[in-house]
Design a protein that fits this description.
Strand order of the largest sheet: 1-2
Organism: Trichoderma asperellum (strain ATCC 204424 / CBS 433.97 / NBRC 101777)
Keywords: Membrane, Transmembrane, Transmembrane helix
Order of helices and strands: HHHHHHHHEE
Strand content: under 5%
Number of strands: 2
Transmembrane segments: 25-43, 50-69, 85-105, 126-144, 164-188, 208-225, 245-263
Distance between the termini: 45 Å
Structural class: mainly alpha
CATH class: Mainly Alpha
Largest sheet: 2 strands, antiparallel
Helix content: 55-70%
Oligomer: single chain
Subcellular location: Membrane
CATH topology: Rhopdopsin 7-helix transmembrane proteins
Protein name: RTA1 like protein
């Protein structure tokens, strides 16, 4: 996807910002794809008023801005400026963290929708808070590492920045793995002993759970890739070819966005302001529980 690049005037302290020439066409394509995705989700948000999907849209904007940064860098090869490099590095690292935040909040609302609080490993009043704590912590750890990497002038400072980012990514993987366990245990329990609501509600809640699983797996694979990428070091094989970031990051995050466009949570969970959730094809019953 890109040719190799040698150290030149674009380097900081003797280290090249990229070990390849960024591909302008690929970056432009994903800028367009993520902008279209963000606009589609913005339409869905305005239609269904599911405000907890605002972080998801923000994450898509981060993705678009990240590939815009790579697009700018591609036009500067081989004399890259630090600004666009830092922009793409930070936003592409942090974007999926924001996608995950909305996914965490969605599970808690789904559990409450089905009146199945007793089947959650974590009390639903705490479920969103626990995972958002992990998400926000990961966000700030990665931000700190990215900031250090952006100002690195020596190999030791570059290594330290990468180690901090790796730590933040591992933290994210641990919390996301636990989230997947919570979702699976909840699903297993409600299948074994369905609640009355789960049997009568006229929405495809099980299909939506499978969408949550698929999105979670995609984000997990992306995060594991990023851990491997930074663990391998600045000159490691995963940072020496641009192909990997488009396969294991850009494509996976775009598919994640597409899954929620096709099966948006607003289709099965209307906002509190609308005051009801359809329980059959012909009648709606009031549902006014306060979500966390």
């Amino acid at each position: 996807m890109s040719s190799s690049a040698s150290s030149d005037s674009s380097s900081a302290g003797g280290f090249s910002l990229y070990h390849y020439y960024p591909n302008k066409g690929a970056a432009s394509a994903f800028v367009a794809l993520f902008i279209i995705s963000a606009l589609a989700h913005l339409y869905k948000l305005s239609r269904y008023r599911v405000w907890y999907f605002l972080p998801f849209i923000t994450g898509l904007i981060f993705e678009a801005v990240g590939y815009l940064g790579r697009n700018i860098s591609a036009g500067e090869s081989p004399n890259w400026r630090t600004g666009p490099y830092v922009l793409q590095s930070l936003t592409l690292l942090l974007g999926p963290t924001l996608l995950a935040a909305s996914i965490y909040m969605t599970l808690g609302r789904l559990i409450r929708l089905l009146h199945a609080d007793m089947y959650s490993l974590i009390r639903t009043t705490w479920l969103t808070k626990v995972f958002l704590f992990g998400d926000v912590s990961s966000f700030f750890i990665q931000s700190a590492g990215g900031g250090m990497l952006a100002n690195a002038k020596t190999k030791s400072s570059i290594d330290l920045g990468e180690n901090i980012i790796t730590g933040g990514l591992i933290f994210q993987v641990i919390f996301f793995g636990f989230f997947m366990v919570v979702a699976c245990v909840f699903h297993w329990r409600i299948i074994r002993a369905p609640t009355p609501t789960s049997l009568t509600i006229a929405v495809p809640w099980q299909r939506f759970l499978f969408v949550l699983y698929a999105a979670s797996i995609l984000i997990m694979v992306r995060s594991v890739f990023r851990v491997a990428e930074f663990s391998g070091g600045f000159s490691g094989p995963l940072q020496s070819s641009e192909t990997y970031i488009y396969i294991f990051d850009a494509t996976l995050m775009f598919i994640t966005s597409g899954l929620f466009i096709i099966c948006h949570p607003g289709r099965i969970m209307v906002s509190e302001s609308k005051g009801s959730i359809p329980l059959s094809d012909s009648v709606s019953y009031s549902y006014t529980e306060t979500y966390p």
